[in-house]
Amino acid sequence: MRRALLSRARDFLRFKRATPETAPAAFQSLYIAEGSDWFWWFGDDQYSGKDDEFDDLFRLHLKNIYRSFGEQPPAELDRNIVPHTVTWTHAAPVDRIQPSDRLTVRTHCPGRLTWIVGDQPAQEADLTPVGGVMAGASRYQLTLGPFPEEAAEISFTFECTHMGCPGTFVCCDRRPYRVRIDGAQ
User: Are 50 and 36 contacting, i.e. CB atoms less than 8 angstroms apart?
Assistant: First the structure.
């Protein structure tokens, strides 16, 4: 897919009859995309631990080619090439992910997550502590996914299990949260 996206960007430049002299910004973005670490780190023979970041940067440089002509980049450049892990928190909830993504639900309270993916039966699990304690706050999380291709939504509720919790914190709100899966079949 990455080579196809790069090829389409080159075709776009040919269609525009652009050269490095007439469209230096577009060609700078093309050269950056062609020379990016994407082609080194991606594949089964290498592992960067940052594939999602390389993916985002690669697609950003390709988008900049179209933007340099004042045109909207193709929608396909908004689609992740590799799966991403998207983090949902009470302070920064997300309302959508892409079909290949995983969803990490993170809180500052220990608790139990109940979730439903599409029309599948509800599932439950305890959030696990991560990262130790920093400035008196702990973090707990659970990562969900991958999801079935036909799933269009994830719905979840969080039950705080913090001993002595007064039940008035944002994490004690038992309402369901919904995250849409864009592009589901």
Answer: no
172 CB-contact burial (10 Å; exposed 0-12 / middle 13-18 / buried 19+): middle
Q: What is the pLDDT of residues 125-184, one digit of tens each?
A: 999 988 755 555 568 999 998 888 889 999 999 988 888 777 777 777 788 999 999 864
Q: Could you give phi then psi for residue 125, rounded to 5 degrees?
A: -165, 155
Q: How far apart are CA 15 and CA 66, in angstroms?
A: 12
Which residue, among 62, 65, 134, 146, has the nearest Cα to 104 in the 3D structure?
146
| Segment holding 41, helix H or strand E | helix 38-41
The whole-model pTM stands at: 0.71
Query: CA 163 to CA 43: how far, in whole Å?
Result: 46
